[in-house]
Design a protein that fits this description.
78% of the residues lie in helices and 0% in strands. It has 180 residues and is an all-alpha fold. The protein has 9 helices and no strands. Helix 3 runs parallel beside helix 6.
Amino acid sequence: MFVALGVCLFREAGLFTGGTTGVAFLAHYLLGYPLGAVLFVINLPFYVFGWRRLGHIFTFKTFVAVGLLSAYVELLPQWIGFEHLNPLFAAVMAGLLAGTGILILIRHGASLGGVTIMAIYFQKTRGWRAGNVQMAVDFVILLTAFAVADAHKALLSLLGALALNVVIGVNHRTDRYYGV
């Protein structure tokens, strides 16, 4: 629900984010596809990798989390609305909400698929900080926002991704709690 609210804030402000959600945003904005459905479909190939490298329990939890996120992203606009939403506030708050939600999932042996699966894998196998991996990939995905949106929205999207990844980077380390 944290992440879904963050994604809805990004969407309401016309912003982007990174990861597979960022790719789903591109398809949503450019092609008009429903964001939740695209998000679910884009993550399908990552489940195979997750099943093989991170285990079936992690992958099942991730599948459920992505399924719920996909549903909530479509349902939340029916439950809440914004008469006024400052894009700067939306970028920062959406990033903080999404980062917190992702951190909760990681600490309980799940993710939101895609890039996060890869970030957790690299943290476990190579010692790379998950937040750093996520931020690097998000940066590349968010560069496309400059081709699709105006520079102001693209920069705000980068700020949102930074907020998201700072939450993960500061709080997720291998020597901290990692539940299963």
